[in-house]
Amino acid sequence: MFNDSSTLKSHLATRRSGKARDMIAPGPDAAQLRDIVALALRTPDHGKLAPWRIVTVADDQRDGFAALLKEAWVADNPGAAGMDLSALDQFAHQAPTLLVLLSTPDRSAKIPLWEQQMSAGAVGMNLLHAAHAHGFVGSWLTGWAAYSPAVAAAFGAREGDAIVGYFFIGTAGRPLDERPRPEYDEIVRSWDI
């Protein structure tokens, strides 16, 4: 069983993202989404800077999001106009709920930039944990759309900000599959002086 929230240990041992393209309704309602985000914000944040922002993309904004993706793709890929861009439509319309997480570091702070970016990543992981704890599945996606300056600017990114990822939340439309996980002994070693 994936995303077993009976205990924190069980949750962590069985956590599994769902594929955004396979998610169906329902997604979280407004109160659940507010709670999911509130839980995600309980993340390590050296200096209490909150160097991240979350943008919600409502159902009635998905067509606009798709149009933004297509416009940015064509601008970045001369000759793409007139090509089949249905994959961008699919991306924009998958899953009932979409959040965009931005890293918004404070470059004037004494806290190193890397720590602020790591904090934004921790918010992302907490978004998934909180969604799963509410009985939904979540998926953290990046790809081209996360690295496009035009797309980032449309979500309010300033110079030095970046899209951490797109967080799709919904109900699993099919059984979740396990994926290969790293082996402990391949990742962990003892320090030898």
- Over the alpha carbons, how many angstroms does the gyration radius reach? 18 Å
C-alpha termini separation: 42 Å
Number of helices: 8
- Uncertain regions spanning at least 5 consecutive residues: none
Q: Decide which structural class fits the backbone.
A: alpha+beta
- H and E string: HEHEHHEHEHHEH
Helix content: 25-40%
Gross morphology is globular
Strand content: 15-25%
Count of strand segments: 5
Helix and strand arrangement:
Layout: H1 8-14, E1 23-24, H2 30-40, E2 52-57, H3 62-76, H4 86-93, E3 97-103, H5 113-133, E4 137-141, H6 144-147, H7 149-154, E5 162-172, H8 184-187
Antiparallel strand pairs: 1-5, 2-3, 3-5, 4-5
Keywords:
single chain; 193 residues; alpha+beta; 5-stranded antiparallel sheet; 8 helices; 5 strands
Write a brief structural summary.
With 193 residues, the protein is α+β, with helices and mostly antiparallel strands. The protein has helices at 8-14, 30-40, 62-76, 86-93, 113-133, 144-147, 149-154, 184-187; strands at residues 23-24, 52-57, 97-103, 137-141, 162-172. The radius of gyration is 18 Å and the shape is globular.
